[in-house]
Amino acid sequence: MSKKKRVTLRDVARQAGVSPTAVSFAYNAPHQLSQTTRDRIIDTANELGYQPHPVARTLATGRTNTIGLVMPTGLDWILHDPLFSLMLGEIGTICDEEKMRILIVPAVGDLSPGMLATIAADGFVLFSIHRNHPLAKSVEHSNRPLVMINGDESLRAPMFNLDDFNGAYLACQHLLEKGHRRIAVGTIGPREDGVIIPSFERRMLGYEAAVRDAGLPPSTLRPVYIRGLLSMGKDSFEKIWSLDPRPTAVLCVSDVRALGVLNGARKAGVSVPGDLAVVGFDNLPDSAVSTPPLTTLKQDLPGRIRVALKTLFALIADDTEDDDPPPPYITPLELEVREST
Amino acid sequence: MSKKKRVTLRDVARQAGVSPTAVSFAYNAPHQLSQTTRDRIIDTANELGYQPHPVARTLATGRTNTIGLVMPTGLDWILHDPLFSLMLGEIGTICDEEKMRILIVPAVGDLSPGMLATIAADGFVLFSIHRNHPLAKSVEHSNRPLVMINGDESLRAPMFNLDDFNGAYLACQHLLEKGHRRIAVGTIGPREDGVIIPSFERRMLGYEAAVRDAGLPPSTLRPVYIRGLLSMGKDSFEKIWSLDPRPTAVLCVSDVRALGVLNGARKAGVSVPGDLAVVGFDNLPDSAVSTPPLTTLKQDLPGRIRVALKTLFALIADDTEDDDPPPPYITPLELEVREST
DNA sequence: CTGAAAGCGCTTACAG
DNA sequence: CTGAAAGCGCTTACAG
User: Whole-model pTM?
Assistant: First the structure.
């Protein structure tokens, strides 16, 4: 925290009696220098306490070695979405391998199309950006590479999604086959900020299609807005349980919602699946050990994240002309039937 | 993703027939310019698609508007520590207010004392850095402001901690008063990377002191290494339950561990608190709704995080000489007795 | 209200 | 193997 003037490459050069070029080489192209020169430079640098200035280096090289993780909302999203934590963990592992840093870019404040341009990153990963999201415009205008995860498939960008529609279709079909005809859908409510989560939107469509294809009326499904927090499970359950007529099953657009419902049902002494069957989505680690274990849709999260990031890194390295985005990468989903149905 | 040459401030100046200074002013000191000049500049800039280069601006101003969040391990830490997610959410809220960005700095790869100097951030928040951690050295050598959260109190830096020792003391005392004499301590095991979590270390000392002060032998407490993952709860419980002699209670160094034990006990048909009393630490939102609700230590997390960040922002703004760190800010803990004991 | 000039601290062809 | 020079794209006293 000292205030004294920064030691620059120039200072080292002067002190070591070499040119600035040599000092730069000592760090970035050591083989260009004789052993003795290099050693002398490094020694002097250490003596003076020289630390290359990362920002100056970035300006000269054009590389920040940072990727921006763009979220659809504020960072508090992480509290509602354990899946986001899982993704962060995966991304962290991959970025460590690639020696890239992670900059968090929440969607708050300035959301104009030029917003991404103000961020010092080599490329971006955008999470759950819907075509109506303010940042959807910046997707098309970005002057730097980006990839989208769980995004809106109508946007023109490399896309790494789940097969939400068919997964949801399977989940709903599963309940219909078990004879359920009054099914609540536990989903996210309209948000104040108007943010829509594309994957949830697709899942709704999948549920509805399964009902339609079974020749049942749309009223078979009744949406209920519930929160993605385990601690709100009591509320979630009560909202569902107080529907009239009372549903016999609930499809949740996310596991965290389903786990909340399970918890609420247990507190209320309602038996799952006896009185209420529950299906989640995503297959969180916790879903295998809940009481009862949760029927849900299983995905290969690490695989998908890795492909997405490798694609991004390739785009950053390539730096070629604006070409058409690759076809969407869609991870298939498998219904994991456990004891909650 | 276009490759064409970047539009610079210089281009805008030329096109608008003004000096580079004027263009810079149009963005950063609009009042210095006449309305008409400013409008003309902004219009030309928009026409040309000019976007100020964030890195160049940073080099000139010396401000990145970014803080680095330094973790004791890789980013996968987030998967084991819901409390870290809670902190991230809080930090996100505060950084939004201050228009600061968040750069994630996991402790991987280069951990030399100069590591922090290579990071483009105005300051740092260090989480859970122990005096034996490789990054402890960079704390003292940092040329930029930093604050520590849940850090090692022997390090010389602004410190924002919990009163871990006394909290743990209360928890253990509580069990002793209930008559427990065989108490397992569910804690983190030695990590391959050697990372020690200072708050867990202090909590252990608090448990031990309570036993000592009660005139009981140290063997009253038996440490068991368990994972901080709900999905590992079965393992955690079994490790504890298979101790010989069998404990009647367990103190966990974190709520997530305690919740795992609760889950494992339920699966095994072991009644809590009847057969086994369980105490956690931290008071996660989920701990109030577990079965049974968890006895734990309650803290004011948002308040502490906010003070820590305000302190950091003040240090960044001040930019004064290396003075003594303020006295540690220690949040008191309150024992929240619920049905698990 | 406006502009010429120096500076932020690096990297990297280029020439020797 | 080594160095002089231009460049990365801004900001900001300073002078007018």
Answer: 0.94
